[in-house]
Amino acid sequence: MIEAADVCSLQLRNLRDGPSAAFHELSTRVAEFKPTIVLLQHPVRSGLDARSLSLLRSVHDFTLVYHEGDPYGRFTHRLPAAARAAAKASDVAMTVGSGQFRRNLERAGAKDVRWAPHRYDPDSFGYFPINADRPYDFVMIANRSTPRFAFRALPGARQRLELVERMQEKFGSRFAIFGAGWEGPSAQGKVPFWQQEEAISSAWISVNWDHYPNEADYFSNRLPISLAAGSIHITGRHPGYREYFTDDLPFLRFADSPEHLVAVAEETLAGTSEDQRLSAIHAGRLWVDARLRADTQLVELLNAGGAQIDEAAGVEARRLDVATLTAH
């Protein structure tokens, strides 16, 4: 049970006033509030380091849950210093993959590392009506990664480029690619993060190829956002998917290479009627609502720290029909 909560944006305070002021605010709040659980999410640019986290521990005794939603590799896009310090100081660490991502935190000193997949924000996505007004057959949202040196490219970047090239060659203007750096008949330019739903729901099928395609159990937030936004989603298969995605889901399909993904996309469109696609999209939105909401994840993160929140009661509470309420 949660009796009270306090929220502190360390990144904002650090960027505005510097790390000393940010830590002073945090340590003052901890001393006054005396929390039993501190949930720390993505501490990059927070100003925290090993020394400040040790000092924070001396202010008050609490359980530290560290949640890292960003993907990091071992040799490229490595775990930043603040993340390494948070991992070492944590009682429980949560990350979005169970392979290299998990091992990164363990090498940094994390004692208990658990899997916490990407979710979507239900206050931002899942509101557009589902209908057949779709100017495109296929859509993808991704930036083109063009590092100065090839060895600095993120894993999966080459396959992502191959996928876009193959989709554009096969489907032309029936395929829309939103993001920076793309050219050709399919390129639509950048789309703001909070406007992704409009872009995704402009097509029947959304396609994706993740960075870190070999990371076990990893999927980016593109998967839950696309299902919530209202599309059939096709993405690259990661190790471990067969354990999590156990059912034959008509709204979610996987491919083992960019070439295979193009074939799966063509087969999915050709093998379904408009009514079947609408039905699958409706089912996908219900499925992701039941499993991959960000507010549900907050309960899981707090429970990892010992909060003992009744998850079932939380689900019922958020399903309350606000139309039945009377204002006083």
From TrEMBL:
SUPFAM superfamilies (UniProt xref): UDP-Glycosyltransferase/glycogen phosphorylase
Pfam families: Glyco_trans_1_2
Residue intervals of the Spore protein YkvP/CgeB glycosyl transferase-like domain: 161-302
Superkingdom as given in the UniProt entry: Bacteria
Record InterPro entries: YkvP/CgeB_Glyco_trans-like
Name recorded for this polypeptide: Spore protein YkvP/CgeB glycosyl transferase-like domain-containing protein
Protein source organism: Cryobacterium roopkundense
